[in-house]
Amino acid sequence: MPFSSLGLRAGLVEAIRDLEYQTPTPIQAQAIPLAMAGRDLVGCAQTGTGKTAAFILPMLHRLSTRKGIAALVVTPTRELARQIEDVARSCARYTKHRITAVYGGVGYQQQVDALRRGVDLLVATPGRLLDLHARGNVDLRRVEVLVLDEADRMLDMGFWPDVKRIIGLLPEERQNLLFSATLSGAVMRVAQPILRDPARVDVAPSATPVETVTQAVYPVNGFQKTDLLIRLLEEHNLERVLVFTRTKHRADRLCRHLANSGIRGAAIHSNRSQTQRQAALDGFKRGHYRVLVATDIVARGIDVDGISHVVNYDLPANPDDYIHRIGRTARAGAEGTALSFLAAEETKELRDIEVLLGTPLECKDLDGFNYLERILPNPERTATRKPRTVYRGRSARSRGSRKVYRGAGWGS
Question: Under 8 Å CB-to-CB from 87, ≥6 apart: which residues?
């Protein structure tokens, strides 16, 4: 169906045409009519499927009169806030709605000035929104529609007490929309008091990765991860690669090693100022940096077309984060590749990811790389079996078993 069949205002349809969107994605086709009708809604879809437009378009459709902040989007990170603001402004090109994002990491005054000029749709991170309200710079008493975006991430990051405080500042009579890439039982339990008879739109199982992502695991000794990454970058001439590390210090250290090897890279994490984070993201988008190294806290705000590879330099402790990481590639139907480096101490993380996916991941070796002693998952494992195989050099033997795996033919 075309967007025009959804009943959106003419100005919104015209803006969609300018953006060259042809037809609604599944989450948009299902969520937009329900939201336009005023229903409370829980939306779950994989990243890169048009989730932001699925709540922005009906919000803008329902904003008719300018009487203060009528629509509020709360999101966990400043990168996501900027991304949502960009989408909203593109969609509101012909509606004249005033849109502003407020978030930490930058000065107050510019945001305060924008609020004083008048805002119809406000995008905010929880901490900055509460700070502005405490200083008397934002009035939330006229909010008609509330969107909680990436609610599971806000819960994981400890923002839910702030979210509850924000909800206490809003009118009781309002529409509530909750969107996320994954929806856990914990999220639904804390969200239940907020929602009123919500419709649910779930266009894919919450633990299913994008189908067009090719996934593989590279078992490697922990201290050889950097060498393996550099070899992969050089031998395969990869040009737009997103790398995830466990900590911000590891991200900075990895960037230094890449620079020493002549590979242009930048780090993006919570210790970077907003200016530094935006410069890194913009440089990655323009192709100035071949590699962007990130931590999970900023993962969902990285919306860059053409990322060919996501590399899990460190496996995430939370298996749901694996889904969000690999969703940065293969966006909007494109193909992509996700590679995960597996060190001995990360076998539990791999097992948890495979259990979540319901299938074991393929293991591979890089031909010609000088592997030292390492741990390999048993090639006959299932998604529920704990990896137990010890690998030394180019052969492996199973703990507690005499079976020997020679060479890498099982996973190459």
Answer: 52, 53, 56
* Report field, pTM of the whole predicted structure over 0.85: no
The number of residues making up the chain comes to 412
Is 176 contained in some domain?
Answer: yes
Give the range of the structural domain holding residue 261, as residue numbers without chain letter. 213-363
Report how far apart the first and last C-alpha atoms of the chain are (Å, whole number).
Answer: 44
For CA atoms 389, 395, 400, 402, the dihedral sign is positive
What does residue 324 show for φ and ψ, rounded to 5 degrees?
-70, -40
From CA 352, how far away is CA 346, in angstroms rounded?
10
CATH code of the domain in which 112 resides: 3.40.50.300
Q: Are residues 38 and 95 in the same domain?
A: yes
Answer whether residue 301 is part of any domain. Answer: yes
**Residue 208 maps to a domain:** no
What distance in Å separates the CA atoms of residue 152 and residue 150, rounded to the nearest whole number?
5
pLDDT digit string, tens, across residues 350-377: 999 998 888 899 999 999 999 987 878 8
Same domain, 221 and 193: no
Same domain, yes or no: 251 and 153: no
Q: Which tens digits make up the pLDDT trace of 140-180?
A: 999 999 999 988 888 877 889 999 999 999 999 999 999 87
CB–CB of 258/225 below 8 Å?
Answer: no
Question: Which residue is it, tokens 């000065």?
Answer: 107
Contact of 328 with 299, CB cutoff 8 Å: yes
Residue at which a domain ends, from 202, 234, 265? 202
Q: Which helix (H) or strand (E) holds 46?
A: none
Distances from the Cα of 319 to the Cαs of 96, 245, 323, in angstroms?
Answer: 42, 14, 7
In a domain, 325, yes or no: yes
Nearest to 339 by CA among 207, 229, 250, 254: 229
